[in-house]
Design goal:
Layout: H1 5-14, H2 20-28, E1 49-52, E2 55-57, H3 60-70, E3 77-81, H4 87-94, E4 98-103, H5 106-118, E5 123-127, E6 140-145, H6 154-159, E7 160-171, E8 176-185, E9 188-197
Parallel strand pairs: 3-4, 3-6, 4-5, 6-7
Antiparallel strand pairs: 1-2, 7-8, 8-9
């Protein structure tokens, strides 16, 4: 496991992350800002870390894989469901995307909102149910969902622009497959499936029921 930023980036490269823009964003964004103080020593290891409230900051490989799958272009309008620590949103913003992100846990929302204020990018953040999306700014070029749901939320399908792409893990509460969904026409979608991912549950009206 890499213990420095440089080692982590080389590890990601060896695991199939070939988009230099993604790797450059990992170089620009300090992951240690997004992990609890007691875990900062592990910030550049290629593993998920707890951030409290039953949530995690995703494994760097997973963040890189999903970001690479999105094929981000500068000025893409990206909707992120599940802000969490804010690291994924910061990576997208570092690549020049216009990020709109939703978090359902109020404590995490408040903490990450303060962190975003200290970063050199502007990220629009909202507290609420991510499964119903953020219709005010739709349609989006890209949608990324960082929690595992039982099915693709219909609202997110509608808020993706024609020609846009959504990356979302779908399955049961233990294991999911990553769905890479291209919207080819108003009601037409092409889907590529990549198995063997594990995320916290996507909770909401169009996800799993909450606590």
């Amino acid at each position: 496991m890499g213990s420095s930023k440089k080692e982590l980036i080389e590890e990601l490269r060896s695991e199939g992350i070939t988009d230099e823009k993604v790797l450059d964003a990992f170089d620009k964004v300090d992951r240690s800002l997004f992990v609890p103080d007691a875990l900062k020593i592990h910030a550049y290891k290629n593993g998920a870390l707890p951030i409290g409230f039953g949530q995690t900051i995703s494994q760097p490989y997973t963040v890189a894989f999903m970001t690479q799958a999105l094929s981000i272009k500068k000025d893409d309008k990206v909707l992120e469901i599940g802000t969490g620590s804010g690291f994924q949103g910061a990576i997208l913003a570092a690549m020049g995307a216009k990020v709109f992100t939703i978090e359902r846990n109020l404590e995490i929302y408040n903490r990450t909102l303060l962190l975003f204020d200290k970063l050199p990018f502007r990220i629009m953040m909202r507290y609420g149910d991510g499964t119903i999306g953020w219709n005010e700014f739709a349609p989006y070029d890209k949608i990324i969902v960082t929690a595992g749901g039982p099915a693709v939320p219909e609202n997110l399908r509608k808020q993706l622009k024609v020609g846009g792409r959504m990356v979302i893990p779908i399955g049961d509460k233990e294991k999911q497959s990553m769905m890479i969904i291209d919207k080819t026409a108003e009601d037409k979608f092409d889907t590529t499936e990549v198995p063997n991912f594990s995320f916290v549950p996507l909770i909401g009206r169009e996800g799993w029921s909450g606590e």
